[in-house]
Amino acid sequence: MEASQETGFEPATGDGPPDPGPRDARAGAVRTAFEGMLQIRRLTHTGPGDPEGTPAQWELHRPVRAVALALEAASIPASAVRVSGERTASGYRVCAGERSGSVRVEWVGPPGSGAAHDEEEALSGCVAVLRRLGWTALLYRGPRRRRFIEVEPPAGAGRVGLG
Fold it and tell me: What's residue 20's pLDDT?
């Protein structure tokens, strides 16, 4: 998705356009959004432990957005699609998971891109980023032996609606 004055910043989910805008402007917007997320965590955290390592309530209400922001802020590339639906870049794809409040992360790319070959290493990197930020992230092997991550709120956070 793209940042615009009309809709505000949206993190890349991997289902957006190939070029979300000028690279420097995008990097600055991602950095600002991620720092804002960490600040919200610090200000709203009331339990034990590192506040930056525990998702805030707003993240639990918008887990797709929060997970996509975490991955983009870690400089992990997002996949992209043209308006026609044709995938144009290899990278992560974040979408709602099967269960309420869960998120699915896949590593996808255009035909012949080698995304399937790269997915285990790439998704392992995604798992590390998400776990550092307090999410429960587990790597699975699905249909056709393709790997994916199931991301959930940390234990005790409860499940809420999708975002």
Answer: 60
Q: Which amino acid is at 27?
A: A
Give per-residue pLDDT as tens, 36-65.
Answer: 999 999 999 888 888 899 999 999 999 999
40 burial via Cβ count (<10 Å: 0-12, 13-18, 19+):
middle
pLDDT at 161: 42
Question: Which among 69, 43, 78 has a CA at the least distance from the CA of 129?
Answer: 69
Q: How far is CA 85 from the centre of its chain?
A: 20
d(CA 105, CA 100): 15
d(CA 105, CA 67): 9
4 conformational bin, left if phi > 0, alpha if psi -120 to 50, beta if neither: beta
Can you tell me the mean pLDDT for 69-77? Answer: 97
User: Alpha-carbon torsion 108, 89, 8, 29, what sign?
Assistant: positive
Q: Which helix (H) or strand (E) holds 10?
A: none
Tell me how far the alpha carbon of residue 154 is from its chain's centroid.
16
| Token output for 75 | 């400089």
DSSP three-state, residue 78: strand
Question: Residue 23, SS3?
Answer: helix
CB 14 within 8 A of CB 92: yes
